[in-house]
Every structure is written in C-alpha cells, then in structure tokens.
Amino acid sequence: MQDLPEQYLEGIRLFNEEEFFECHDVLEELWADNQGEEKKFLQGMIQASVALFHFGNENYGGARKLYDSSTKYLTPYAPVCMGIDLEKFLNDMATCFYELRNAGPEYPTDIVLNDDLVPKIHFAEERG
C-alpha cells in the first residue's frame, strides 16, 4: 500500500469511519489533480460516498441517482483497483441500497440507512 497516495488512504479512512462528506472532499481534491487511468475510478468512489451521505440524510432521489452513477463508474475496474477489493465493495453497496433501489418509481418515506449494511472499504489482501 506504500505506493498509494496519502490523500487516497485518508479518503478510505474517512469512508470507513462513515464520514462520507469529508471523504468526498478529500477524494475530490485527489480526483481534480489526477489525469491518469484512475480518474473515473476516483469519481465513482466519490459518488459512492455521496450516495451514502444522501441516503443517511433521507435524500432518496440523490442517493439512488448517485448509487447508479457510482456503480457505472466503478464496475469496469473490478475486481481490484488501487488496492481495493472492488468486487466486495460493489456487492456490499448493492446490499446496502437494495431496498431503496427496489422501491419502485416513488421515493419511500419509511426506508432508513441500515448501519449494519453500510459498506466498508477493504484492501484486496485483507479479504479472508
């Protein structure tokens, strides 16, 4: 993990502490400075964090929209990108957003973000 940018690792730490807006801020700075192949991956990670932020604040339309967009950005990078077990992350995000994604065209009023289902970011070598 020593070749990964410190800012990236800080973003992951914030995500795993469920500081989703702060994670967004940190990763967005890294995204803005990135011209490499990882730019769209970083955009997907930013959108995933904002999707969870919106979900937690009951902005279901924003949460669902950003979940869909983040999935489109991240899927091509699976199973592993920048050290992250992206396959596990995408599966965990799908589980977390399942009820909201399947609520139909109307936004529900009784769905809450289940803390037990909020994904964590794992490095590929941590998978056991």
What does this 3D model show about the protein?
- The protein has 128 residues and is mostly helical.
- It has five helices and two strands, in the order ααααββα.
- Strands 1-2 form a two-stranded antiparallel sheet.
- Helix 2 (20-33) packs antiparallel against helix 3 (39-56), helix 3 (39-56) packs antiparallel against helix 4 and helix 4 (60-74) packs antiparallel against helix 5.
- The radius of gyration is 14 Å and the shape is globular.
Topology:
Elements: H1 6-16, H2 20-33, H3 39-56, H4 60-74, E1 80-81, E2 84-85, H5 86-101
Antiparallel strand pairs: 1-2
Helix pairs in contact: 1-2, 2-3, 3-4, 4-5
| Helical stretch tally | 5
Mean pLDDT: 92
| Domain module count | 1
Poorly predicted residue ranges: none
> Which strand order does the major sheet show?
1-2
Shape: globular
CATH architecture level-2 label: Orthogonal Bundle
SSE arrangement, N to C: HHHHEEH
Major beta-sheet overview: 2 strands, antiparallel
Helix-and-strand structural type: mainly alpha
**How many E strands?**
2
Strand content: under 5%
CATH topology: Hyaluronidase domain-like
**Helix proportion of residues, in percent?**
55-70%
- The radius of gyration over CA amounts to 14 Å
In CATH's first tier, which class applies?
Mainly Alpha
Distance between the termini: 18 Å
CATH homologous superfamily descriptor: TTHA0068-like
